[in-house]
Amino acid sequence: MKEKGLLIVLSGPSGVGKGTVRKEIFSQPDVKFEYSISMTTRAPRTGEVDGIDYFFKSREEFEQLIAEGKLLEYAEFVGNYYGTPVDYVRETLDAGRDIFLEIEVQGAQQVREKFPEGLFIFLAPPSLSELHSRILTRGTESDEVIKGRMEKARKEIEMMNLYDYVVENDEVEKACSRIQSIIVAEHCRRERVQHRYKKMLESD
Ligand code: 5GP
After folding, report:
1. Would you say 14 is a known binding-site residue?
2. Where does ATP bind (predicted)?
């Protein structure tokens, strides 16, 4: 039986730069995984192409896809639906190729429930570590400002619970290379490779 591909999910808080990091990863010449193009009901932005950036759908079309069970996950984000077509994900994994999803956190949670064996990477804002050092050095911000930041930081840190890895998006290139390294390491995980060696012994 063919070995299945790896399901890779990149997620994190809104505004952290998931899209930028994902685009940078896929601009590399040697990417070895497929990108799962999402469906959305939001209008295309200038330069976005249907079938490349997203599959752009009407609300009716999207709700029909939900009803037919064609989405692996979906979420409503700032008044629009976003979702991952399930068939492409399954076909890619079954063909033994890795697939990469870049989605918001509610969707990532749904994928974790369906694919607990996936690789879940949380992209964290550099403001979390900045906040930490500012609190330590007691910066000039008022208590009120610090309190607001702490609350936001708490929520973001709590979101991490679901993930296997946390990558700080301090610099796009650095974040991308950490993500690439994590994927390479994941392929070497004992649980993923041991069965090959067992087979070798059995055929002896
Ligand atoms: P944007 O409108 O800026 O392209 O995307 C808005 C948010 O939707 C981003 O956080 C992006 O990661 C997320 N997103 C994109 N595609 C999907 C998807 O298929 N499912 C979910 N749950 N979120 C998505």
Report:
1. yes
2. 12-19
